[in-house]
C-alpha cells in the first residue's frame, strides 16, 4: 500500500488521504471456523505431501468467503517448502471454461504438458483428452507431483456435455493414478443433484458449507476493522486521528441504523465494501474523515431503486404513458396491453382535461412507446412479437406500482394534473 | 488339439439284485448294492451299503471319502443315487483349523464329517471305488502304513472343532483323547496335497543332490505320501460343502461351458475355484463336473494303448480297495511287471497317477509327442518308472505342474528332435520338478500371510460370516496377502529353477525327491480343495497385478506425463493414516470380497471364450460403486496371468470407457490404437477394425474388450454399439466384449432391436452391497490395522447400505471419520480408535443437506422474502408466484416487522441471492419483477428453519 517508510512521520494530508483504503487483511474480514479451515488444509496437505487423492466442494452463498478460504488455506499450505515444491495448481472457472474442450486446453496449458508449445495447445479435443488422461494415468502416488484442480463456479462444469471432465477428474481422484485434489467452489446448495450418479459416486462427498452466521455486533466490528488504518501506516498521527474518527463514526446512532439496515439486507462482505467505498470516496483533503452524513448518502445511493431512477429521466409524455399503463394494469389485473389501448387510455385523460398542452400526434406517441420498450420498462409478451403490427403488440409493464408512485413524487416539476391522474383510482 | 490324448475311463454302473424296497412318496427304489464295471475290463466292483467309498471330486488325486448309507434309484433307473456319510481328509480341513487338532495329522487320517452344510446325497455315478477305512482309538498310534490305501479315522470334524467319535456314530471305535502323534519319523510327505505350509528352503536346495534324500525317497516312505495325497482329496469336500447353495448356480453354467473345452477342464476348474473360493460345492462337483470327469475316466480305460499306463496310474489308488476289487487285482500284475524293471529308487516313488496324469502330461508336452509317449509306454518299461517318479509330483500340484511345465516345453523343442523318446522323459520329469519347485517356496512365503489371515478371520467371524470364512473364502485372502515383492522373487526363483531343471535327468530326480522331502517335513497339508489342487496358483493372483492389462502404451512424439516430484511422497505415519491410506478407494485391494460369484461368472465366461477361440458379449449392470469395473479388472488380471504361464492361449485386453472419450465414434479410434498402435480417424479406424475382425488371420489372438459406461456410446443410428456387438459374432473375430453400464434395462431402453439382439442375453447384474458385505469390505481393506470400533463400522455400513450400497461412499465416510478422529480433542477415555461419535459426525457431514442451516444464516430480508413467498403461495393456493406478487407480501411483512419498506431493487437482490443458492428457483433475471418464483425446499423446512429465530 505504502512505498514510504515509517520515518516520514508527517505526510501532507493529501498523501495520507490517497493512502486511505479498505483494510485488505484477509483473515480479519472473514472469521472462518477453525474446523473448516483445518479440514481443507489437512486435505490439501495430504495431497501435496502424502500423495493422497481427494475431492471436496466448498459451498456457500455469494460473498461468504469461499475463494478467500481456499486462498488462506493455500497460503498456509505453501509455507511448507515440501508442498510448495511439489504442488501443481490448475485454476479453472466455469464462467471462462464454458465447455470441456476449452477446459482441457486450459488444464494442459497450466500443467505445461508436452503438447503445449508456448501458450498454444495443439491437437483435437479427443487427442487432448486422451493425452491428459494418459498423463494422469502414468503418474503414481509416490512419484508424481500432486495436482490441485480448483474449479470455480463448479456448478457450471456440471452442465458440460456428459460431465466428461468431472467424471474423469473424479475418476482419477479415486484410482491409483497421479495424485490430484479436486476443489470445487460453488454457491449452489443443490450442486450434488446436478451430478450424474456415476459422477456423484466418484465424488468423495466432502462438502464444506460456508454459511456466515454473523451477528450485528460482529458486523459493526468488521466495519470498524475494515475502515481502520493498519499499524504500519506511514503517518502515525494521521492514522491515530483516522482510527479515532472511525471509532466515533461506528458509535453514531444514525450510522448504526444505516448499518443495521445493510446488515438486514445482506451479510455479504462485498455489499459492505461497496457501501464503505462510497463513503471513502467522499473523503478529501478538506475533509480528511468520514462523517455520518457520508455514510447516509452512500447508503441512499446503495439502496436507490434503479428503475425508479430511470423514470426520473423520462419525458412527460412517456410518464403519462406509464401512468396509463398502470391504470390498465389496475383495470385488467395485470393482463398485457398494446399501444392502442395505452393510447386510448391516454386520450381519455386528455379529453377530461381538455387541455391542448398534451396534444401529441399518433407517431410521436408511438415513438415514445418504443422508447419505453428500449428502456425495458415494458417488454413484449413472448411469442407474439414477430407477426403483429407494432401498435397491437402485447406488452407488459415491468414496474411495480410503488416504483411509479415514488418516481412521480420525485419527478422534477411534475404537472399536478398528471400527478392527480396517477393517484386517482380510475383513469 | 493337444488335448485329444486325454485318457478317460468309462465306468458302467448297475444295480445288483432287485430293489430292496420302494418308497412311494419319493418314487425311489432302494438297492442293496451297486456294481461298477469298467469298459473293456471284465472285472467289476461291488459297492454295498455300509462300505467306505471314494467319490469323485474335482481333484482326481484326492477323491472324497464317504461311507455308503443307502443306495437308491428312481423308477426309470436312470438316476442312481447314494446317501453317504462324508469323511474329510486332512487336506480338506482349513489349515487354520488344523491347529485345533493339537498334533500333526497323519497323512492318511480322515475325519468323520459332522457338519451340516454338506449334501449327503450323491450321484452314484460319482463313486470311484471302495476304500478301506479303519477306526482307531484316539490314543492308538497310526499303524505304520502297511497298506497305503487304508485310511484312518480317529476324530470327527464339524467344520468348527474336532471331536471324539461318538460310539453311536457309524465309526466303530471311539478314539480316546489325542496324544499328539509325533509324525516326523513318518516321512511320507504328501506330494499330492501341495504343501502350502511346507517350508521353502527345499526349493532353494534343489540343485544340490542330497544322498540322504535319495535314500529316503528310495525307501518305502513315499507311500505315506501317496496315501495322504488321496486323503487330501476328501477334505476338500468339507470346505466346499459349506457353500453349497451359493455355488450351485454358478458352477452349473460354468461347468457347462467347461465341458466344451474338456481337455482344459481340470486346470480351468481349479483356477476358478481358486479365484472365487465359493465357486463350487462338493455337491456341484459331483453333479456337474462328474460328467466331464467320468468321461475322462472312461476314456482312460477304453483307449487300449494307454492301458499299460493306466495300470500305473490306477494301481496306487486301487490298492486301497485292492482286496475287494477284482479290477484292481487285474491291474496290479501289470504294474508289477513294470515295477520289476524299475530300479529300487524308482519303485519307491509313489505312484499316484490317475486320470489327470496323462492329461497333465499331454498338456505339458506337445500333442504329437504325447501320442508317441503313450505308444511307447507299453514297451519302454524301463523308462516308465521315471515317469512315474515324475507323475506323483505332478499330481501333487496337479494343475500347477501343468502350468509350470509348459514353459519348459516351449524352451525345449529343439532338444526333442534328436531322440524323442528320451527327451520326452526329460520333459516329463521336468514338469514335476518345476511344479514341486514352484510350490514349495511359495508355501513358506505364505506363512506370514496365514498369520494375517487368521487374524482377519477372527475379525470377520465377529461379523457372523463364519461360514464364508471357514471355507475357502478366507484362504483366498490369505493367499493374496503376500507382498508383491515376495511374489516377484518367488516367481523369479521359479524361472531360475526352470532353467536348472532342464539341465539333467538325474539331478532333477534328486531335486524332486528333495522337494518332496521338504513337503514331508511340514506335513500339515492345507486343508482346502485349493490346497490340494491349486494352492500354488492362488498367490499368483497378486503378482498379476504387476502386469499391466495388455494395453501397450503407444509412444508418441509428446509423452503424456505429469512431472515427477523432487521429494518422495511421505508414508503414512500412524495407525489412522495407515487406515486412511488403505481405505482410499484407489488402493488396490488384495482381493475383492463379496464378489466371488460375479468374479467366477465373468471369469468362466471370458476364459471359455478364450479357450474356444470364439467370441461373445456380456452385459454387466449395477448401480455405481458396486465393483463392476473392479471385478472385471480382477478377472482380466487373473486371466492375464493364466495366459502368461501358458494355461490359456494368450489374449489381448483392451479397455475403453464411454466417459473417457469425447464422442462415441472415438471408440473405434481408441480400440484401434490399443490393438495396433495405429492412429486413424474414426471412420478409417472403423473400416480397419471391420477388416480385422471380419477376416481370418493365422494365429490371431483373442481380444477381450471392456466397454465401460456403455450408455454413452449411444448414437442416433447406434452404429457404434451395433458394430461392437456384431464383431464378436463374426467367425474369425475372436472378440469378447464385456460391457458395463449402470442400468439393468439399458438394452431394452435405448437399443434398437438389432443391437439388443446381438448383445445377447448373457447379462449379469451387480446388486448393491448389503451392510454385511460393506462391513466385510472395510474389514478386508483395513486388514489387520485396528483403527475402528466394531460399532462404528457397523453404523457406517448399515447407513450406506440403506441409502445406496455404494462401496465408494462407505470408504469415503470411513476415511472422513478417521480424519475427524485424528483432530478431535484427546479424550482421556477414548481408545484412540474411530468411534461412534466420529462416524456420526462424518455421516452428518456427508448426508445432511445444508438447506436449513443456509436459511438460518440468511440475512433478515432474505428470510422475510422466503416468508413472503410462503404467504403468497398460501394466498394463491399455487406453488408458484411472480416476484411482483411476492414483493407485495414482502413489503407488508416489513411493515409488520417494523422495518423500513424495501425497494424493488433491494427485494430483487434478496430474491436473486436466494436463487443463486437454489433455495428458490427463479426464471432468468431479465424478466425483472415479472419473473416467477418457486421454492426449492419444502415449505415445512422453511417454516421450521425460521421458527427458531
Put the structure in a nutshell.
The complex is a heterodimer of chains A (about 425) and B (about 950). Chain A has a five-stranded parallel β-sheet with strand order 2-5-6-1-7, sandwiched between helices. Chain A has 22 helices and nine strands.
Strand and helix layout:
The complex is a heterodimer of chains A (427) and B (949).
Chain A: H1 13-19, H2 26-29, H3 34-50, E1 54-59, H4 66-78, H5 81-86, E2 88-93, H6 100-111, E3 116-117, E4 120-121, H7 125-138, E5 147-152, H8 154-157, H9 164-173, E6 180-186, H10 191-194, H11 197-202, E7 207-209, H12 216-227, H13 236-251, H14 253-265, H15 269-280, H16 292-303, H17 306-312, H18 316-332, H19 339-353, H20 362-374, E8 378-380, E9 395-397, H21 401-410, H22 416-423
Parallel strand pairs in A: 1-6, 1-7, 2-5, 5-6
Antiparallel strand pairs in A: 3-4, 8-9
Helix pairs in contact in A: 3-4, 6-7, 12-13, 14-16, 15-16, 17-21, 18-19
Chain B: E1 8-9, E2 11-16, E3 21-23, E4 28-31, E5 33-38, E6 44-48, E7 52-55, E8 64-74, E9 80-89, H1 95-98, E10 109-113, E11 121-123, E12 127-130, E13 132-135, E14 150-157, E15 162-164, H2 201-205, H3 211-218, H4 222-241, H5 244-260, H6 265-275, H7 282-302, H8 307-320, H9 326-341, H10 344-348, H11 356-364, H12 367-376, H13 384-396, H14 398-411, H15 413-416, H16 420-462, H17 466-480, H18 484-501, H19 505-521, H20 529-534, H21 541-544, H22 575-583, H23 596-612, E16 616-622, H24 628-644, E17 651-657, H25 666-676, H26 682-694, E18 702-708, H27 719-726, E19 735-741, H28 746-750, H29 753-759, E20 763-766, H30 771-782, H31 790-803, H32 807-823, H33 836-847, H34 851-857, H35 860-876, E21 881-882, H36 883-897, H37 904-916, E22 920-922, E23 932-935, H38 939-947
Parallel strand pairs in B: 10-14, 13-14, 16-19, 16-20, 17-18, 18-19
Antiparallel strand pairs in B: 2-5, 3-4, 4-8, 5-6, 7-8, 7-12, 8-9, 9-10, 9-11, 14-15, 21-23, 22-23
Helix pairs in contact in B: 3-19, 5-7, 5-23, 6-23, 8-9, 11-13, 11-14, 12-16, 13-14, 13-16, 14-16, 16-17, 16-18, 16-19, 22-32, 23-24, 25-26, 27-29, 30-31, 31-32, 31-33, 32-33, 34-38, 35-36, 35-38
Amino acid at each position: 500500500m505504502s512505498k514510504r517508510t515509517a520515518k516520514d512521520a508527517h505526510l501532507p494530508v493529501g498523501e495520507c488521504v490517497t493512502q486511505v483504503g479498505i483494510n485488505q487483511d484477509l483473515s480479519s474480514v472473514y472469521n472462518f471456523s477453525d474446523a473448516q479451515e483445518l479440514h481443507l488444509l489437512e486435505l490439501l496437505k495430504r495431497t501435496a505431501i502424502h500423495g493422497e487423492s481427494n475431492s471436496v466442494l466448498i459451498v456457500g452463498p455469494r460473498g461468504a468467503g469461499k475463494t478467500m478460504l481456499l486462498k488462506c488455506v493455500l497460503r498456509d499450505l505453501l509455507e511448507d517448502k515440501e508442498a510448495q515444491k511439489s504442488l501443481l495448481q490448475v485454476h479453472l472457472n466455469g464462467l471462462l471454461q464454458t465447455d470441456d474442450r476449452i477446459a482441457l486446453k486450459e488444464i494442459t496449458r497450466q500443467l505445461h504438458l508436452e503438447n503445449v508449445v508456448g501458450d498454444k495447445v495443439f491437437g483435437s479435443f479427443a487427442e487432448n483428452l486422451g493425452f491428459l488422461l494418459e498423463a494422469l494415468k502414468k503418474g503414481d502416488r509416490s512419484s508424481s507431483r500432486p495436482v490441485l484442480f480448483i474449479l470455480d463456479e463448479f456448478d457450471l462444469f456440471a452442465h458440460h456435455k456428459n460431465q466428461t471432465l468431472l467424471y474423469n477428474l473424479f475418476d482419477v481422484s479415486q484410482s491409483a493414478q497421479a495424485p490430484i485434489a479436486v476443489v470445487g467452489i460453488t454457491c449452489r446448495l443443490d450442486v450434488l443433484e446436478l451430478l450424474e450418479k456415476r459422477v456423484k459416486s466418484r465424488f468423495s462427498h466432502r462438502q464444506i458449507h460456508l454459511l456466515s452466521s454473523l451477528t450485528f455486533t460482529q458486523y459493526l466490528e468488521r466495519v470498524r476493522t475494515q475502515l481502520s488504518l493498519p499499524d504500519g501506516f506511514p503517518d502515525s498521527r494521521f492514522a491515530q486521528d483516522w482510527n479515532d474518527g472511525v471509532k466515533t463514526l461506528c458509535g453514531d446512532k444514525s450510522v448504526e441504523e444505516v448499518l443495521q439496515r445493510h446488515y438486514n439486507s445482506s451479510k455479504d462482505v462485498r455489499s459492505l465494501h461497496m457501501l464503505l467505498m462510497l463513503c471513502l470516496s467522499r473523503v478529501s483533503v478538506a475533509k480528511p474523515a468520514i462523517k455520518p452524513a457520508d455514510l447516509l448518502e452512500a447508503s441512499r445511493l446503495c439502496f436507490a431503486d434503479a428503475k425508479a431512477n430511470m423514470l426520473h429521466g423520462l419525458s412527460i409524455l412517456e410518464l403519462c404513458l406509464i401512468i396509463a399503463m398502470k391504470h390498465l394494469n389496475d383495470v385488467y389485473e395485470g393482463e398485457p396491453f398494446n399501444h392502442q389501448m395505452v393510447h386510448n387510455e391516454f386520450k381519455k385523460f386528455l379529453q377530461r382535461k381538455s387541455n391542448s398542452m398534451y396534444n401529441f400526434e399518433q407517431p410521436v406517441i408511438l415513438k415514445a412507446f418504443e422508447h419505453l420498450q428500449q428502456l425495458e420498462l415494458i417488454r413484449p409478451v413472448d411469442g407474439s412479437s414477430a407477426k403483429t403490427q407494432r401498435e397491437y403488440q402485447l406488452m407488459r409493464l415491468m414496474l411495480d406500482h410503488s416504483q411509479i408512485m415514488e418516481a412521480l413524487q420525485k419527478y422534477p416539476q411534475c404537472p399536478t394534473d398528471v400527478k392527480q391522474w396517477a393517484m386517482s383510482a380510475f383513469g | 488339439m493337444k488335448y485329444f490324448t486325454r485318457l478317460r475311463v468309462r465306468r458302467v454302473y448297475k444295480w445288483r439284485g432287485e430293489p430292496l424296497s420302494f418308497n412311494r412318496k419319493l418314487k425311489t427304489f432302494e438297492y442293496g448294492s451297486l456294481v461298477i464295471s469298467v469298459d473293456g475290463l471284465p472285472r467289476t466292483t461291488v459297492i454295498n451299503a455300509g462300505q467306505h467309498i471314494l467319490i469323485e471330486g474335482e481333484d482326481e488325486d484326492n477323491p472324497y471319502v464317504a461311507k455308503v448309507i443307502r443306495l437308491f434309484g428312481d423308477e426309470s433307473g436312470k438316476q442312481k443315487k447314494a446317501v453317504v456319510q462324508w469323511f474329510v481328509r486332512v487336506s480338506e480341513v482349513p489349515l487354520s483349523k488344523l491347529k485345533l487338532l493339537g498334533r500333526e495329522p497323519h497323512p492318511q487320517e480322515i475325519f468323520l464329517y459332522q457338519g451340516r452344510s454338506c449334501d449327503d446325497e450323491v450321484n452314484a455315478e460319482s463313486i470311484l471305488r471302495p476304500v478301506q477305512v479303519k477306526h482307531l482309538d484316539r490314543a492308538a498310534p497310526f499303524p505304520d502304513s502297511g497298506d497305503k490305501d487304508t485310511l484312518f479315522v480317529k476324530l470327527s470334524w464339524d467344520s468348527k472343532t474336532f471331536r471324539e467319535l461318538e460310539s453311536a456314530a457309524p465309526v466303530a471305535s471311539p478314539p480316546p483323547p489325542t496324544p499328539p502323534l509325533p509324525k516326523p519319523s513318518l516321512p511320507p510327505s504328501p506330494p499330492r496335497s501341495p504343501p502350502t505350509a511346507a517350508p521353502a528352503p527345499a526349493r532353494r536346495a534343489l540343485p544340490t543332490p542330497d544322498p540322504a534324500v535319495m535314500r529316503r525317497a528310495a525307501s518305502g516312505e513315499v507311500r505315506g505320501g501317496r496315501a495322504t495325497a488321496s486323503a487330501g482329496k476328501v477334505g476338500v469336500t468339507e470346505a466346499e460343502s459349506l457353500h453349497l447353495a451359493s455355488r450351485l448356480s454358478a458352477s452349473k453354467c460354468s461347468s457347462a461351458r467347461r465341458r466344451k473345452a474338456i481337455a482344459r477342464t481340470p486346470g480351468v476348474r481349479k483356477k476358478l475355484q481358486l479365484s472365487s473360493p465359493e465357486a463350487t460345492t462338493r455337491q456341484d462337483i459331483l453333479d456337474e463336473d462328474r460328467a466331464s470327469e467320468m468321461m475322462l475316466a472312461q476314456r482312460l480305460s477304453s483307449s487300449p494303448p494307454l492301458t499299460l499306463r493306466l495300470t500305473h496310474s490306477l494301481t496306487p489308488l486301487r490298492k486301497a480297495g485292492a482286496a475287494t476289487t477284482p479290477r484292481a487285482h487285474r491291474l496290479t500284475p501289470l504294474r508289477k511287471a513294470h515295477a520289476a524293471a524299475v530300479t529300487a529308487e524308482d519303485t519307491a516313488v509313489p505312484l499316484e497317477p490317475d486320470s489327470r496324469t496323462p492329461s497333465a502330461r499331454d498338456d505339458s508336452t506337445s500333442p504329437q509327442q504325447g501320442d508317441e509317449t503313450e505308444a511307447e509306454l507299453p514297451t519302454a518299461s524301463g523308462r516308465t518308472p521315471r515317469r512315474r517318479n515324475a507323475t506323483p509330483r505332478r499330481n501333487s500340484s496337479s494343475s500347477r505342474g501343468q502350468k509350470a511345465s509348459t514353459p519348459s516345453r516351449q524352451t525345449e523343442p529343439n532338444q526333442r528332435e534328436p531322440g524323442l523318446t528320451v527327451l520326452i522323459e526329460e520333459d516329463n520329469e521336468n514338469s514335476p520338478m518345476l511344479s514341486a519347485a514352484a510350490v514349495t517356496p511359495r508355501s513358506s512365503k505364505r506363512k506370514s500371510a496365514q498369520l494375517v489371515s487368521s487374524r482377519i478371520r477372527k475379525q470377520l467371524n465377529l461379523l457372523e460370516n463364519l461360514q464364508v470364512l471357514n471355507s475357502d473364502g478366507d484362504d483366498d485372502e490369505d493367499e493374496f496377502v503376500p507382498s508383491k515383492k515376495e511374489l516377484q522373487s518367488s516367481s523369479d526363483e521359479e524361472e531360475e529353477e526352470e532353467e536348472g531343471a532342464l539341465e539333467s535327468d538325474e539331478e532333477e530326480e534328486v531335486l524332486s525327491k528333495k522337494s518332496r522331502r521338504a513337503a514331508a517335513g511340514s506335513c500339515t497339508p492345507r486343508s482346502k480343495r485349493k490346497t490340494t489342487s491349486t494352492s500354488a496358483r492362488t498367490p499368483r493372483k497378486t503378482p498379476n497385478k504387476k502386469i499391466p492389462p495388455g494395453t501397450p502404451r503407444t509412444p508418441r512424439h509428446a509423452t503424456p506425463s505429469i512431472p515427477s516430484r523432487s521429494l518422495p511422497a511421505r508414508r503414512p505415519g500412524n495407525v489412522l493414516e495407515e487406515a486412511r491410506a488403505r481405505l482410499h478407494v484407489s488402493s488396490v485391494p488384495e482381493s475383492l470380497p463379496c464378489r466371488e460369484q460375479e468374479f467366477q461368472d465373468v471369469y468362466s465366461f471370458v476364459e471359455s471364450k478364450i479357450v474356444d477361440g470364439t467370441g461373445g458379449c456380456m452385459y454387466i449392470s449395477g448401480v455405481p460403486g458396486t465393483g463392476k469395473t473392479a471385478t472385471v479388472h480382477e478377472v482380466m488380471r487373473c486371466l492375464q496371468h493364466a495366459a502368461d504361464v501358458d494355461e490359456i492361449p494368450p489374449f489381448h485386453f483392451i479397455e475403453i470407457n464411454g466417459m473417457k472419450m469425447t464422442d462415441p465414434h472415438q471408440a473405434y479410434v481408441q480400440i484401434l490404437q490399443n490393438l495396433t498402435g495405429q492412429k486413424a480417424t474414426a471412420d478409417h479406424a472403423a473400416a480397419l477394425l471391420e477388416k480385422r475382425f471380419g477376416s481370418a488371420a493365422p494365429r490371431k489372438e483373442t481380444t477381450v474388450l471392456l466397454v465401460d459406461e456403455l450408455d454413452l456410446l449411444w448414437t442416433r443410428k447406434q452404429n457404434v454399439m451395433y458394430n461392437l456387438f456384431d464383431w464378436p459374432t463374426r467367425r474369425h473375430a475372436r472378440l469378447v466384449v464385456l460391457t458395463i453400464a449402470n442400468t439393468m434395462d439399458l438394452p431394452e431402453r435405448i437399443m434398437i432391436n438389432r443391437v439388443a439382439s446381438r448383445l445377447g442375453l448373457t447379462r449379469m447384474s451387480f446388486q448393491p452391497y448389503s451392510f454385511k458385505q460393506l462391513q466385510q469390505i472395510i474389514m478386508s481393506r483395513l486388514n489387520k490395522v485396528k483403527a475402528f470400533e466394531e460399532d462404528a463400522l457397523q453404523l457406517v455400513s448399515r447407513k450406506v447400505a440403506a441409502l445406496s450400497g455404494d462401496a465408494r461412499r462407505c470408504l469415503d465416510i470411513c476415511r472422513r471419520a478417521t480424519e475427524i478422529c485424528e483432530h478431535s480433542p484427546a479424550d482421556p477415555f477414548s481408545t484412540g480408535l474411530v468411534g461412534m461419535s466420529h462416524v456420526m459426525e462424518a455421516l452428518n457431514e456427508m448426508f445432511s443437506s445444508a438447506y436449513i442451516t443456509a436459511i438460518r444464516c440468511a440475512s433478515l430480508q432474505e428470510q422475510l422474502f422466503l416468508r413472503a413467498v410462503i404467504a403468497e403461495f398460501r394466498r394463491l393456493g399455487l406453488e408458484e408466484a411472480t416476484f411482483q406478487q411476492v414483493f407485495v407480501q414482502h413489503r407488508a411483512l416489513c411493515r409488520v416487522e417494523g422495518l423500513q419498506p424495501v425497494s424493488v431493487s433491494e427485494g430483487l437482490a434478496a430474491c436473486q441471492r436466494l436463487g443463486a443458492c437454489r433455495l428458490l428457483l427463479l426464471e432468468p433475471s431479465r424478466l425483472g419483477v415479472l419473473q416467477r418464483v418457486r421454492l426449492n425446499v419444502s415449505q415445512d423446512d422453511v417454516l421450521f428453519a425460521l421458527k427458531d429465530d
